[in-house]
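Hi support team,

I submitted a single chain yesterday and got back a structure, but I'm not sure I'm reading the token output correctly. Could someone confirm the output below corresponds to the sequence I sent? I've pasted both exactly as they appear in my results page.

Thanks,
R.
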Amino acid sequence: MRQIWIVTGLLLALTGCGERAAEHMAAAPAMVAGAPAQEADKAVADAAPAAPRTLAYEHSLTLDEAEDQVPVLYQKTLQLCQSMPSGACTLLDARLNTGENANASLRLRVLPAQVKPLLSALRTLGKVNSQSTSVEDLAAPMQDNAKKIAMLTAYRSQLEGLRTQANRDVEAAIKIARELAQVQNELESVSGNLAHLEKRVNTEIVNLSIQSHSSAPFIAPIRAALREFMTNLAQGLASAITFLAYALPWSLVLGLLGWVLRKLWLKVRRRKDAPVA
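Hi R., thanks for writing in. Yes, this is the structure output for that exact sequence:
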């Protein structure tokens, strides 16, 4: 009897151990699977497409240097743009005026990653007079153009399906072909507008202005005034002659009118002064 109780106790102990072992074995895969699940969620979040850019940035920078340094800064700016990786900087417009009050202006299209290095390099070239950044939100026009493209593409597909069905009807085929051509022209126009907006938000504009106003010598305004003296004198004489040409006819008319009014006034005065009979 005692042996039976001993055997029963051993069986119960083994059963409890087995249940605890099963619980640990069931919990272990869950714990192991938890880390990969978190990593998978993170990978999905990282792989999710970034929101499209819809903001268009435009930067303006004004430098002031001596007149003889304006062409030098102009060439250095061109070299900076050309030294960037291919496609990172595009020259859109460049103007250089030398001589008195020399100035230059450049308009660049730059990739966003290269804007800060470029502006930092430009600020080291001369004295910074002003700097500004403007932002334009192009989300609405981009969405409108995308919707138009989708609608025109669907309409074109419908017209192409109708064209295959109207092979024997010459008049209907001509009308469909004319409508297809018009839809294609509109689709190309809208696609071009969207491409322009996308380029505008995927790149940034940098406007550089180089002036020589505050760096000009003290005598520069006097030299400019003396150089333009004869021109200003001629313009003044021309203005005086023009005024005389306008004023002379009016002077004659006003003089004649004054003479008539004086005659009338004298006549009325004589009647008042005449003795009553």
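A quick pointer for reading it: Confidence is low (pLDDT under 50) at residues 1-37. Let us know if anything else looks off.

Best,
Support desk
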